[in-house]
Amino acid sequence: NEFSGSSNVLLQASVFGKTALVSRGGAMEDAIRRYDFGEVVSFDQPEEFTASVRKLAALSPAESKTLGERARRYAESMDARRYMSQFV
After folding, report:
1. Is 42 exposed, middle or buried (0-12, 13-18, 19+ CB in 10 A)?
2. SS (H, E, C) 37-68
């Protein structure tokens, strides 16, 4: 199955500067690639998923801060109209 939707979860997490781990395809992948605040994986590939979780867990405080700032930049770039335009 190819699921290419999004939810408000990514946006809400990014408001608080959280990194993200998202599946390939759709608006969430686009956000992560465009703003570079997390990892994009195929959840049906356990090795890839595990490596990404480990990578994010091992970030230094400085790296984590940088990704958090990028996440907040993504959140700041969104308004209701722009966010909803992803789904049209």
Report:
1. exposed
2. CEEEECCCCHHHHHHHHHHHHCCCHHHHHHHH
The CB-based long-range contact list for 37-42 (8 Å cut-off, 24+ gap) reads: 37/67, 37/68, 37/70, 37/71, 37/74, 38/67, 38/71
* DSSP β-ladder status, 38-41 and 20-23: parallel
Confidence of residue 74 (pLDDT cuts 50, 70, 90): very high
Q: Tell me the per-residue pLDDT of 31-71, one tens digit each, with 9 for 90 and over.
A: 999 999 999 999 899 999 999 999 999 999 999 999 999 99
- How is residue 63 written in tokens? 């790296």
Residues 6+ apart with CB under 8 A from 27: 4, 5, 6, 86, 87
Name which of 74, 60, 80, 77 is nearest 18 in CA terms. 74
